[in-house]
Amino acid sequence: MSDDATLAMLKTVSTATLTSLLFKRGFRNVFIQGARPLKAGQRLAGPAYTLRYIPSREDLDGIEAFRDPRHPQRVAVEEIPPGAVLVMDCRGDASVASAGSILATRMQVRGAAGIVSDGGLRDASGIAALEMPAWCAGPSAPTNLIRHHALDINAPIGCGGVPVYPGDIMVGDDDGVVCIPAHLAGEIAVDAVEMERFERFVLEEVQRGVAIIGLYPPTAPDTRERYQAWLARGQA
Amino acid sequence: MSDDATLAMLKTVSTATLTSLLFKRGFRNVFIQGARPLKAGQRLAGPAYTLRYIPSREDLDGIEAFRDPRHPQRVAVEEIPPGAVLVMDCRGDASVASAGSILATRMQVRGAAGIVSDGGLRDASGIAALEMPAWCAGPSAPTNLIRHHALDINAPIGCGGVPVYPGDIMVGDDDGVVCIPAHLAGEIAVDAVEMERFERFVLEEVQRGVAIIGLYPPTAPDTRERYQAWLARGQA
Amino acid sequence: MSDDATLAMLKTVSTATLTSLLFKRGFRNVFIQGARPLKAGQRLAGPAYTLRYIPSREDLDGIEAFRDPRHPQRVAVEEIPPGAVLVMDCRGDASVASAGSILATRMQVRGAAGIVSDGGLRDASGIAALEMPAWCAGPSAPTNLIRHHALDINAPIGCGGVPVYPGDIMVGDDDGVVCIPAHLAGEIAVDAVEMERFERFVLEEVQRGVAIIGLYPPTAPDTRERYQAWLARGQA
Amino acid sequence: MSDDATLAMLKTVSTATLTSLLFKRGFRNVFIQGARPLKAGQRLAGPAYTLRYIPSREDLDGIEAFRDPRHPQRVAVEEIPPGAVLVMDCRGDASVASAGSILATRMQVRGAAGIVSDGGLRDASGIAALEMPAWCAGPSAPTNLIRHHALDINAPIGCGGVPVYPGDIMVGDDDGVVCIPAHLAGEIAVDAVEMERFERFVLEEVQRGVAIIGLYPPTAPDTRERYQAWLARGQA
Amino acid sequence: MSDDATLAMLKTVSTATLTSLLFKRGFRNVFIQGARPLKAGQRLAGPAYTLRYIPSREDLDGIEAFRDPRHPQRVAVEEIPPGAVLVMDCRGDASVASAGSILATRMQVRGAAGIVSDGGLRDASGIAALEMPAWCAGPSAPTNLIRHHALDINAPIGCGGVPVYPGDIMVGDDDGVVCIPAHLAGEIAVDAVEMERFERFVLEEVQRGVAIIGLYPPTAPDTRERYQAWLARGQA
Amino acid sequence: MSDDATLAMLKTVSTATLTSLLFKRGFRNVFIQGARPLKAGQRLAGPAYTLRYIPSREDLDGIEAFRDPRHPQRVAVEEIPPGAVLVMDCRGDASVASAGSILATRMQVRGAAGIVSDGGLRDASGIAALEMPAWCAGPSAPTNLIRHHALDINAPIGCGGVPVYPGDIMVGDDDGVVCIPAHLAGEIAVDAVEMERFERFVLEEVQRGVAIIGLYPPTAPDTRERYQAWLARGQA
């Protein structure tokens, strides 16, 4: 399956489904803790392009730091590939911003898929008004220089307590963001689509009054049969 | 007064009013800390039906745990009485979900009054779309098995730092959820309705320019008189 | 420049802009941490009128405390000058409210500019429905007496980790609230308006595809020229 | 009873005893949370002399601030009465110091009874080597100016989440520090001495094999008799 | 192997060793977070006897609650079997005590092996002076009634974030306390003794200048040979 | 001045002194928050050699990870230069260890100056028994693999909220650890020695009854004179 097909599938499934499938494979820590969507209804699927911040230092991180054309935050915004997701390691510190609406707009123009940060975002309502989705620890006005020194592009990082390696697939929805290890994205996508098909059947069953036990998971002998019939009726 | 009448009254009053009335009776810790509504405008009143989670253990809480027909979370969903509120003790850990939209839908079908959790909920926008209201520490996608082992049904628990005994009356609104000790629900309901009647008068007074001091509480001699007149005019 | 002109200018600029300008002058800690707007789209600019809470004590802070006509919370509501912002020091404790909708309504009637608290607010949806804006650590139903003893009016306080001196200028938007030291408000307002004018130019440039580096900050030789031309075209 | 006699009694009893006696009178929040002794075996009893810090501001709290002869921290050290306890409100922030060994030595020379802080102390091993005892949130080297602005002397404060009014009696031991409201100190001291006398009896009973139930509290009919006999034997 | 032999072996090995062996078997969450020893050099090994606290409620948990001969905390102290460890679930709240020195002394008299709590302990220096060891979140004077309601004896609990089932084997040292699932204690004990024997060899090697890589773990071909020779020399 | 002379001087001065001198130069964030000494009386001065951990991932960080001869933690232990300080970035997570006594012993044999971690250390009493000093967030038994993946050697990191660049000078005492930017170490060392000389004079003055104001800082005209006389008497 092509990467594009995988991403297209992943964009249709929920982070709840994905965390369950990763848990089945032994992964317990894939959900970016504390990263909330800036607005409802956003969907995201794309490879991680990472930016690491360490704590800032007064002599290195004055306002003039942004004048350096090699400043990693600005370079990241200009070099992130189309379709990629900027994932920022802010050490979970939301007392300042990790980016603002001008940079986010530039990223949207360049075709980035979205922003994920365990820090804050400034001009958050401006970013929320973009088409490109964003998840973060909350709106926060102060410039990142007050707490953060942008250091590395595309090194492995921690974000919201989760290991994120460049190229891992970030998928986001209203619940938050999950990080899928790159080598598993294809098989997880296939399984997720099938699992959600079955859950649509389950939800219909529940809505017409069927009890959970035996249905979800389908341990009762006839559940699988009814599901096959449901599939055969083309209701998926 | 019947229980139904009590619940009907409690559904019309605010948690702010209820916590004040309980404070007057010496109760300082009745507001479920950290449980926020999944959507605005929800109202809840019903007896607590509790589910206790302890930390999960890898050998007991694999994905196959849900295949056990006696799994307490699933049993709770199938046995919660109509009109009752599922209150979950997640030890305040919102890093994973305590339930998702399929179980919530089943609960709605079965007539449950609502969900209160000091942990997360997954498929949170799906749950928010139900008529049955829910309060929790926030959306969180990962399956509960990663952190939680469902253990007890209808044992006394802590939820959001508050003691909740089965049968206590849970009342929720946009501010959050209060737990009223069962034996006090009737008298609190009566007092709350009266207190809110007075507060509607107070608010009208304030809107027409009356000062707070002497009015709220009504220490000025004429406040009670004006209130009686207001009542007599049938404006409550 | 008059104070009114300063406030009018500050009401049009963002807290992101203001924190950057204060950072340039050496101020790193001016953003009220944890104070979120009760609703989207609010704007605030006004001098701080402070109320300090210390932890409550059972024998001093019973429900009857509000009967005292000198209770500082009630006095504050009646004495806050028109146009001023009530800033409350709750030691970051959001487990109870610092005010509710009746007091907030009274403040609106009296012409107060808004409420900023690092504690909770009760009847939060009622307060959100007012025209007067409010920022706080979140909705919280319990009465302030459970945790807070109102002590001082218009003493210097900490709020959300920030020093707030009476008369400092509080400016709020969707990101949160910034506290501008009083003596800097005028010059900051002027700089902020100019900075946002330049950022509108930058945003247009970005939207038409210009790269960030060299543009923002304007280190490329021609950026300033293009900006002058943009200004000359009257597009600010 | 004289104040000196009260203090002498309080210096012999434990904070465990005192918190229980205050709880019996309805006080639930009298133990300074997070204030640990700098060394084992310290005892403290004396009236509170308070110092309030608010967050520092860069333009007011440079290193030269200490050159002001009216700097409240330095004034407090020079004006604290003999026998009094310096209680500092650091908003629970232990990332910096609230005092160091030079000031502590000066306080000892002036006859102060001790130091209680919910912030840090620097040169902590130097302070621990003094005879004057100290309790704090932990050793912390940075100067208070980085986070704290000394503002008020002898105003009511919060310390470790507890209300402390000037003149309240601070009592400390290895468990920590309790704040006794001033008007209760005398009666609490008397009760505490009696309670500890009884507990010495209980401990002897337990050491010789008597069960807790019926003994502590003394609900069994003969416990009080045995205690009277124990008292008569002069073993208290 | 008898249970006594298992416990005797476990009392000689470190919690570091045990957590590694449990990790090899897939257990990641067995170390009681935040439970520190009251004094250095303590060792503990014994089966868990649990006590669960929920948040207290003012009408149920007054000082007279201890007069009830069925009060679970007091019953636990009188019924804990010799050799067992009292493990208390305080929801990680160390603002109050979970027990004090009189109860601890009674437990020692009755032959209990030790105390583990994720809450506080009062009269902590008195408890530290006992032979029976104790681990907790720190000294804390206030009576448990202020925050805790003792509810269940010997139900499964969480303690310091770890699931503890009655009969699980608690092992403690200067690092803290590990909870070994009961069915694994025997095999873990055997492996631990062997692992520590090897680590004594490793430490000697390191002390005489051997590099870590190839030695620990013993991936170099000759490490195992040298270890066998060391064993043959009887130096274990 | 040679680097060795600088380090020798820094080893004699306190972290309190150093943080004050760095604050004078505009550095507010140089004290490793939460890193406590494993035993009293330790002193440390040496250049930082850093190790960065990110969150672990189950498929990469099994127990067999240590068999890789290139595992960064093991490589760090073998390659840290004599006199250097191993500084570990554990994201402040003390729920597991960042190293244990075998690795620490190897580091001591190799001549390392010490260990600084914002995570835990296992076999902490074993490490405390070494001559090489260590500071960390506390003893913690579990293996680092449970939470940490060792990634980078000698990259800039955050430790305890402080930026640490390889080669920065780490100085530790009973209060904790300060990180001096490398280029400032020489001048800071000289100033610190002078400042502590003056403070010894101040302490003697205080001990003989001189008041703080005018003495510390020496704003009174005669303080400097008395200091010169004290120096002349050779009492420094």
Short key terms for the protein model shown above:
homohexamer, 236 residues, alpha/beta, Glucose Oxidase, domain 1, eight-stranded mixed sheet, two-stranded antiparallel ribbon, 10 strands, 32% helix, elongated
Task: Provide a short characterization of the protein structure.
Chains A, B, C, D, E, F: This is Ribonuclease activity regulator RraA. The structure is a homohexamer. With about 240 residues, chain A is α/β, with parallel strands linked by helices.
Assign a percent range to the helix content of chain A.
25-40%
Strand content of chain A: 15-25%
Q: Helical region count of chain A?
A: 7
CATH topology of the largest domain in chain A: Glucose Oxidase, domain 1
Overall 3D shape of chain A: elongated
CATH class descriptor of the largest domain in chain A: Alpha Beta
The parts of chain A where pLDDT drops under 50 for at least 5 residues are: none
The major beta sheet of chain A can be summarized as: 8 strands, mixed
Helix and strand content put the structural class of chain A at alpha/beta
Radius of gyration based on Cα positions of chain A: 20 Å
Order of helices and strands of chain A: HHEEHEHEHEEEEEEHH
- List the quaternary state of the chains: homohexamer
Query: What is the name of the CATH architecture of the largest domain in chain A?
Result: 3-Layer(bba) Sandwich
Number-wise, the strands of chain A total 10
Largest interface: A-B, 33 and 30 residues
Protein name (chains A, B, C, D, E, F): Ribonuclease activity regulator RraA
Organism (chains A, B, C, D, E, F): Duganella aceris
Pfam family, one (chains A, B, C, D, E, F): RraA-like
InterPro entries (chains A, B, C, D, E, F): RraA/RraA-like, RraA/RraA-like_sf
